[in-house]
C-alpha cells in the first residue's frame, strides 16, 4: 500500500490474492502470528516478500525450526512460485541436504569467504575444497550406499582475528605449510567450477 499508493480496499484485495498464491486461506488475513502454524507464518512472510514483484528473493534459512515435511512443502511452494512469477532466488542455508533438488548453482562459504562455487549437481558429485568435502560427509545420503558420517574437527575461527593464510587451515585434514601463510587464490578447475585451495 505504501509503495504503490494503493487504496486500503485494493491493498486488502492484493494481500488476499498473495495469501491465496502461497496457499493460505485469505480469511486468515486478520489472524495474529500466534494463531498461525510455523509453516503458515513462513508462507505469510513469503507473501509479504512477493508483494513488490521482486526480481530477486533472498531467503536466509527459510525453513529453520520447521519439521521435515513442512520444509519440503515450503520449498516446493517456493519453486512453484519461482516458475510462475519468474524471479531468481538467493538461498542461504547451513542445511546442504535442502539444496540437492532446489538449487542450480551453489557457493560454499567458510568464515566469510567463498571457498568453492559450482553447478549444484557438480558440487554434490565432485566436491573439491576440503571444507565442502567435510560438509558432504557430515549429512546422510538419501540414496545410494550407507556410509559412516564424519564431522569437521575443530571450531570456526574468531572473525575478529581470523587466521592468516587459508581461514580453514586450522581444521583442514590436508593442510600444508603454505596454507598457514598465504591466502589461496580462486582457480577454475572445470567448467563453472571454482575453488580457493592450494591443492589446486
Mean pLDDT: 87
What coarse outline follows from CA principal-axis ratios?
elongated
Structural class, please? alpha+beta
Number of DSSP strands?
6
Q: For the largest sheet, list the strands in their spatial order.
A: 3-4-6-5
Q: Roughly how many Å apart are the termini?
A: 53 Å
User: What is the ordering of alpha helices and beta strands?
Assistant: HHEHEHEEHHEE
Characterise the protein shown here:
By secondary structure, the chain is α+β, with helices and mostly antiparallel strands. It is 31% helix and 16% strand. The strands form two sheets. It has a four-stranded antiparallel β-sheet with strand order 3-4-6-5. A hairpin with a 2-residue loop joins strand 3 and strand 4 (113-119). Helix 1 (8-21) packs across helix 2 (38-50). It starts with 7 loop residues before the first helix and ends with a strand. The model has no long low-confidence stretch (mean pLDDT 87).
